[in-house]
Design goal:
Its main location: secreted. This is Insulin-like growth factor-binding protein 7. By secondary structure, this protein is mainly beta. It has 2 helices and 19 strands. The longest helix is centred in the middle third of the chain and has 13 residues. The radius of gyration is 29 Å and the shape is elongated.
Length: 257
């Protein structure tokens, strides 16, 4: 989307491009470092563009360019150079995720600022930074456990990946007859629970390890994740047989040995 204003100064055309996060003065003013110097510019449009008429993210910056330099970076950016005498590049000062007032998580404050300008161009409220770090969200199941068929005496495991902000607490239950749940591991000597963070930030992976497998281990196992924003569950069934010949040829794509 673009906003255009004509007859500003000496036949200057102002093009405001939200998609590339920059302003361009054509044809009389090519030096982006000069900023807007024209009082005739509409006040609202001028305020939106004033800071964006400096080099945006990824553009050249610093001294030594044509006309005396490549200019300073826009607000929220800083100029980083690799070699002396060569232009630097405008990069975001704070490159950590932030939570916006719209409830969305942005990779950086710079990208939140772009979203805010877009919202204002549509006549909507600007997006403010609510907090550093991602927005809080209830748990969701990234990878649910899968059904397992195996023989008595075997060693098996169920796994489950969950994510949420704050990082969820992951527990395992066995759903017995009558929907009664048993918090694992309980006092079962052949069963162990392991949990670790990752592989991504705010993600947790948990396992149920059973060895040796017995008929009593048959049943439905539930992965349960919870944090201050809510909870989520996923379940899988373990079926124990006496021999491999008893395992059906077709068990569905989600079943494992």
């Amino acid at each position: 989307m673009s906003l255009a204003g004509e007859n500003i100064g000496q036949e200057v055309v102002l093009l405001y491009h939200l998609n590339c996060h920059s302003c361009l003065l054509v044809p009389s003013y090519q030096n982006l470092a000069s900023g807007l110097q024209h009082e005739a510019v509409n006040q609202t449009l001028g305020e939106m563009c004033k800071e964006q008429c400096m080099p945006p993210r990824g553009e050249a910056c610093g001294g030594g360019g044509a006309g005396g330099g490549w200019g300073r970076c826009a607000t929220g950016l800083e100029c980083r150079r690799r070699r002396k005498g060569l232009p630097g590049a405008c990069v975001c000062k704070n490159r950590y995720p932030v939570c916006g007032s719209d409830g969305l998580t942005y990779p950086s404050a710079c990208q939140l600022r772009v979203a805010s300008l877009r919202a204002q161009s549509r006549g909507e409220r600007p997006v403010q930074q609510r907090s550093k770090g991602p927005c809080e969200q209830g748990p969701s199941i990234v990878t649910p456990p899968k059904d397992i068929w195996n023989v008595t005496g075997a060693q098996i495991y169920l796994s489950c990946e969950v994510i949420g902000v704050p990082t969820p607490v992951l527990t395992w239950n066995k759903i017995a007859k009558g929907q009664r749940t048993e918090l694992l591991p309980g006092d079962r000597e052949n069963l162990a629970i392991q949990t670790r963070g990752g592989p991504e930030k705010h993600e947790v992976t948990g396992w149920v390890l059973i060895s040796p497998l017995s008929k009593d281990d048959s049943g439905e196992y539930e992965c349960h994740a919870s944090n201050s924003q809510g909870e989520a569950t996923a379940s899988a069934r373990i079926t124990v047989v006496n021999s491999l010949q008893e395992i059906p040829t077709v068990k569905g794509g989600e079943a494992e040995l």
